[in-house]
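In this section we walk through a basic example: taking a raw amino acid sequence and producing a predicted 3D structure, encoded as discrete structure tokens. The instruction is simple. Fold the sequence below.
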Amino acid sequence: MNESLAYGAPGAALRDRTHTLFGQTMGYVAVTTGFFALGAYLGRNLSEGWAFVWFIVAFACLIGMNFAVRRSTGLSVVLLLVVGTALGLAMAPLLTYYAATNPQALWQAGGATALFIAGFGAAGYATRRDLSGLARVCFWALVALIIFGIVLIFVHIPHGSLIYSVLGLVIFAGLVMFDFQRLRRTKDIQAAPLLAASIFLDALNVFLFFLRIFARNN
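The resulting token sequence is shown next.
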């Protein structure tokens, strides 16, 4: 009996650490989403030129997080919140446009995104199959999708925008599953800000794909 307790204690500690990491990561995602909303509100009158500047700021902070996460958890959290705010400022002109012309599409995209992340996130968290191979495929598929998006700027393809959005959702379904599996498998609490950044970016991209679909339908 003592031996079973001895073996059980590390397992219980591991489960507690996993639950702590999950709660902390999802808490960071929620707070980052709040800062994103704040940035979108503050930047509602910004021009599109400023939006490009804030995209660069967000990208720079994401790079900085990779260096800061091992040195200071506090700094990485601050950078994460700056990422959320900067992306909100960058997306403000687009969101303001839809809020004025098609607010229903915003609500529909938000609800669909929540269901999408919850469904595929739960599937990824629960699966025991290693999804790292799927993540590599999704990464290169995302590169191809970006190239396809550039082509759409110059070449008219029937239903090209819809095809682009549906393919994007398929790709991010795999990435969401992989990121939530990483969340379950990671044991380092310090990784929470980086995991939160990855999940937040997944959700933001999924939201934008749904927004294109619902705005097209409306």
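Looking at the output, two observations stand out. Residues 2-42 form the longest helix (41 residues). The chain has seven helices and no strands. In the next section we compare this with other chains.
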